[in-house]
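hey so i finally got around to running the thing on that chain from the lab meeting. sorry it took forever, my laptop kept dying and i had to restart like 3 times. anyway pasting the input first so we r on the same page abt which one it is
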Amino acid sequence: MENFYPERLLELKNNFSVKIISGVRGVGKTTLLEDFTERLRSEDVAAEEIIFIDCAADERLRDFQTLYDFVAAKTAELEKFFLLLDNVDCVAECEKAINALFVGMPAEIYVTCSSERLAEKISVLLPDNCDVLKMYPPSFAEYAKDFPSEDALQNYLHFGGLLRIPADLDKEIFQALLRGAAYEIMFDIVERNSLQRAELLRLIVQTLAQNAGSPVSSNKISDELGCSRNAFRNYLDCGEELFRKIPRFDIKTGNALIGGEKFYCVDNGILSALAAVDEVTLMENAVCIELLRRGYDVSCGRFGAMNVSFVAERDGKKTFIQVFDGKNSIRRSTRPLRAIDDSNKFLITLKPEKTFGGVRNVTLQEFLLTL
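ok and heres what got predicted. didnt touch it at all, straight out
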């Protein structure tokens, strides 16, 4: 696990907020919480002041009132304690219990969940007292450290970092394992959200994979799949564990654009296992998820009639990124970036290229390895 997540969790310690660790199944949320528990013990926090509950393992704690009552009884004599709730999305309406625990008990609360929608619900209930730490599958930097080879970048582009398996494994077997991981995640989504149509979720996820990196019309897809638009939006929201919706942004006006959002998969391996996608799409997907991993707000840019792959904003500063498609010339690809009056703009390519007009060229490997 990268040092970023443990260090970020330590930064949030003692800030009197609910800490939510969210991320797709298998990304390492439980390991992070267990390691944090060991860190508390090493800091001489009394054992009775560390309450670790795996909500998935204890079937008694499947509704918010039972969970609240259990914690209240266990901590009645404590003046303060650390409450660590793993897999909290197994508890029906758990946001109610978390809200009540935060308001009524002297607890520092940490929870893990796979559901992005649940993380948002908790954030809405505690808008000024909530920190969300979004975990993503291992980065290329971590992958290259664990599995160094000349083909590390290509292996990462096609097989991602979610499954910790050497890429010299038979490619067909690897693809089958990735598909299996994707279907397990979808099954979990269906179970946790009590979805009635598992096949509809699979079709939506498959459609997002086939259209990764392209503008998506929700109305058009819902019509093609023969489901109501309300049902489609509900299933789409649940599917955001696997695919992140990236809005569009008008660089000239500084306004958000409505419709035509793009979707990118949280892991390149899952994406390539679900659909046959080209290398440029895999490059874009890797760049987008890396930006999200680093804490940027990401949108797809438009400058007049020209498109910019990504506009990434953090701490009030924008970065403009174009992923080279290999089809157009470098001059044509950098044209929208050259039109932008800002020095923080990059063209990402597979190999070093000569650029124009103040646009900096960064290879994909350099970008993914630079923190």
